[in-house]
Give the backbone structure.
Amino acid sequence: MSVNNFKKYLFDEKVRSLFFQTLVIGIFAVIIYLVTKQTAYNLDKRGIGTGFGFLKIATGYDISISLIPYTSDDTHLRAYFVGLINTLLISICGCFLATILGFFVGIIRLSSNWLFRNIAYVYVEFTRNVPVLLQIILYYTILLYLPKIKDAIILFDTFYLTNRGLFSPSPIFKEGFSIVLFSFFASIFFAFLIKYFFKKKQEKTGKQYPVFYINSALIIFIPIIFYFLMGMPLDFNHPVLKGFNFKGGMVIRPEFIGMLLGLSIYTAAFISETVRSGIISVSKGQREASQALGLKSNLIMRLIIIPQALRVIIPPLTSQYLNLTKNSSLGIAIGYADLVHGFGGISLNQTGKAIEIMFMVMSTYLTISLLISFFMNLYNKSVQFKGNA
Amino acid sequence: MIITNSNLKIHNYYKWLQRNLFSSWINSFLTIIALIFLYKVGTFFLNWTFFEADFRYNFQGDLITDRILCSKNIVPGEYGACWAIIFVRWDQFIYGFYPTEELWRVNLTFALLPLAIVGVLFDKIPFRKYFIYFTFIFPFFAYYMLYGGPGFTVVDTNKWGGLLVTLFLGVTGIALAFPLSVFLALGRRSKMPIIKSICIMFIEFIRGVPLITLLFTANVMLPLFLPDGVSPDNLLRALVAVTLFQSAYMAEAIRGGLQAIPKGQLEAAQSLGLGYWQTNRKIILPQALKIAIPPIVNTCIGLFKDTSLVLIIGLFDLLGIGRAALADMTWTKLYYEVYVFISIVFFIFCFGMSRYSLYLEKKLKTDNS
């Protein structure tokens, strides 16, 4: 091989790329080999085996908040599911509350009232520049210093706010309630049919029908009629103060409320900013044009501004949902029994299976993140411009 | 009536009020409600923070050394905050358990930190070149000062705490993550499929899991991965996790900047005969990083707030040291004072950074159009 030939290969892009990639793979292989060997040695020396057998062992610890039955005799696998459900619960509730609060604050930020606008601005700046962990701990502390059970703050004669959580009535479903529930879903189904029907009719005749009012009436009144027809099959178990504690009803624990407040107040500040920039991004001409067409202001908002603003809002909103879900792992700081607290914390300390447990926890979060991204991307596609415009 | 200057001004104020606060009946009503709300919250907060609060001495004039000496604990319901806990534990809040006779070393480092940063932040300062040189010397200087070495006693990192740890993790994490994130961002746009997929996997993995799991992993698993002798201390483990975390987010910000550069720039550079590294270093990155600075600063704000998570793996950052202070029987139950103080410290840093990011955005806008 002549020198020229060699030079040709040396500066050939494909050869170089092949060389670099082989090099990178080689380095990675060596690192992985060394780390695996060292880890196996370290594990062996400490007497920690590998494998997922520990999932079948009883945990021996209690979890304060659990939506599925759980006792300390249950396995680590069940503790994992309890944690997962709690993580999902706080994430869903948090996203829901943060979205409502965020949209609300975002719209106030654009209000014509100077004072309102600036109160919202101060709220946003203060909450998003203080760590969410600190906020969670702060709100939790405030909740723990609420009055004791015997001097509970009574709201609407039914809710009792105390330092041990919010005591509220729990529903008791009697026979026949499923029919009421069914009628509710059926009326939603009919509402869609009616909407479709009237839309077709409007396209033909040009006449507008009060679809919204008809459907609202349908969805509200039909279940109520069925509720009375079935003889009021819903009862409430009210909490009653007996001795030092409440009997009956259900309790929403301060850990949950603290997490919910911290996560949603913090995330709402970010959401409000995306909402604000989304609404600003809709050009002024759009509003003026729709006014010129004679649309009423609520229709302008619903039909013109919001659909266009959503295109800008959805992508950053998705990343806020992802952040909230990841931040829900901070429950460990105040003892909210999420995935990281129970399974990733106590189980890990008990069994010492750090690799397996962290692997499970991380892949769970990755899966949740991917799922949220996937569904939000679907939704995002549905609000983007249709066609090739 | 003759319209004088002052008349005009009053007229303008009046107009402003009418337009912004009392434009309609509903608006006026809302304004009044907001005023009442502000008055209630404002008086409560001012009273609690200043007028009814204790600073170093209580209402009887005694120096407060214990929470039972706080005015609010002597006369319940009459007094506000008791800031004595901050004054008494000031050194811990700032330095942690750093030995008292060595505190000047931390102070010197703190004092020189702005000089090391200013050259990076602003491009129109005199002698910028020398400031940048200093930026590169500073990490070694800071390490030598804070940790110790020949001539100075070694202060082990488990004695570090408070604002020192928060700033250390924040500043070092950002500084180390920056070069890493540039490589990740370039790698993600590379034409080599293996390098590209490694970068994508790394970035998406880090962004998909909470920081706390990375901290746990670094804390529990780093000792398992490494040979016996080289077990890094807790602060270093946290730093590894924080750096990797930050680099993934920063890489995405930089990728946004890279995507904004028109393809013509790349092609022009290549047609001039520049190689890959030369193209990136001289043509692409200077432009891309400039565009990417505001989002980079936003990730830095996020990281700075997230350093508070290290308290969960047992480090005493600002929030951790605050909780340690509250666990002390002499000061227990002064929660709000401690948390409000820490919030204000974080707020000052993060708000400052966000203002800087806004300033840059404005500057970039005028530069380009």
